[in-house]
UniProtKB/TrEMBL annotation:
GO terms for cellular component: Fanconi anaemia nuclear complex. This is FANCE protein. It comes from Lophotis ruficrista. InterPro entries: FANCE (IPR039685), Fanconi_anaemia_gr_E_prot_C (IPR021025). GO terms for biological process: interstrand cross-link repair. Transmembrane segments: none annotated. Residues 7-197 form the Fanconi Anaemia group E protein C-terminal domain.
Amino acid sequence: PRPLCHPQLEGLCSFLQLPTCLEHLLVRFCSWLLALTPDLSYTSAAILAEQLFLRRVLSLTQPPSRHLMAALASFCSKYSQPFCRVLVAAVLREPGEGTEQTKLVCELVEECLEPDCVRLVLGQVLEVPLSEKLLPVVQAALGRQVRGSPLSPREVLPPELFDLLVLTLCRQAPAFATSLSYAKLVTAVLTMYQSQVS
């Protein structure tokens, strides 16, 4: 069959009520998506990431259910790049505390994302002004660099990303003069990369 164009795919999602379907059905739908051949295009996966998860994640006021986490992990396992570009970027742009959203991104970084997507998330964080909300995400990404994960061994930050990290921490230091989270983050960077920091 011919692939659906973007408005058709969005219309199909709306017709199937995917943005608001029960979360246990979302898990089943994601399992079905993973079995599709050929794989979805990047754009189709990005549209589905937005339709399936964006509203749910941005409206979280308590930890996500096990069904939602299972669906997120399932989708991330195959389509993590478009997922990060759509969902993580939206969380980073969202004003306010966003405590549950930040915890969710940290959990995905620590447990689900492949190293290239962990670096993508770190790059996305460093493209926006740092805030207390985002410091745990940076910490989680750096933690993956040190210990690896069940998915992969330890990875080293590319030099350009490391330079951007150090530059961002230095430039924004005055805004975090009394922040314990910022102090912990700087200590972690100095510990992990002591041979590269002068």
